[in-house]
Amino acid sequence: QKMDQRICIKFCVKNKIKCANAFRMLTVTYGEATLDRSNVYRWYKMFSEGREDVNDEERAGRPSTSTTDENIDEVKKIVLANRRITVREVAEDLNISIGSCHSIFTNDLGMRRVAAKFVPKLREFLAKNNTLMMPQPPYSSDLAPCDFFLFSKLKRPMKGRRYATIEEIKTASKEELNKITKNDFLVTDALRIERKLHSMTDLGHLLESELRIASNQRKRNEQGHSNDPSKPDVPQGTERVSHPLTSKKTQ
């Protein structure tokens, strides 16, 4: 497909089709296997400058031993087994450079990282299995403050490590959790309480006014007085309080 696309690019140059339109046509025809934009523009420029050969030029020095048919097949097998694996992890598994591994992904296998395409498939799977999705903001501290606090405590020390089995992940997680001190929990709780108190203080005056109004309303109902808001019947000696959300004042 790589050679076919270069021939298509050459055809577009000969017919004076703009590079942007050529790239769009390739995307429609080859989909995810389309060469990346930079490669399309590079070959378009070379063909515009008079190049005729669509094959790669031989490079001086030691030939690359990483981009082999065997490595290409191995990369394909690894990715099909685990689509969430990174280029770096594949390169480490095969003991090749990241650049060579990336070249195999893009040029030889025509793969790209498009996370959005997995979303519809996931939704179809959940709907097919009658799985209820609960709408909630991800990583929201008001859902489970304790869990939110522990996420960072686990992610920072475990970042960059690789685990062969689920048991290794569980063991490493327990080790990191055991390192969390009592003071860490106290500090986190104190900060959370401080935020809550700050929010309550901001609403304090409004809450107090609402409670007063509700209390006066309840007294009037018990005494059988009229509930007409234009003629409030407030007992003598009781301070008249206006509703904080209205501009009309009690006469």
Main beta-sheet strand count, sense and barrel state: none
Distance between the termini: 85 Å
> Globular, elongated, flat, extended or rod-shaped: what is the shape?
elongated
Total domain count? 3
Mean pLDDT level:
72
Q: Report the radius of gyration as a whole number of Å.
A: 33 Å
Q: What is the SS-derived class?
A: mainly alpha
User: Poorly predicted ranges (pLDDT <50, ≥5 residues)?
Assistant: 114-118, 234-251
Multimeric status of the protein: single chain
Would you give an account of this structure?
- The chain is mostly helical and 251 residues long.
- The chain folds into three domains: 1-49, Arc Repressor Mutant, subunit A (Orthogonal Bundle); 66-133, no CATH class; 137-220.
- It contains eleven helices and no strands.
- The radius of gyration is 33 Å and the shape is elongated.
- Mean pLDDT is 72; it is low at 114-118 and 234-251.
Describe what is shown at a glance.
The protein is built from eleven helices and no strands.
Topology:
Blueprint: H1 2-14, H2 19-30, H3 37-48, H4 69-81, H5 87-94, H6 98-108, H7 118-128, H8 145-158, H9 166-178, H10 182-202, H11 204-223
Characteristics:
251 residues; mainly alpha; Arc Repressor Mutant, subunit A; 59% helix; disordered C terminus; Mos1_HTH; nucleic acid binding
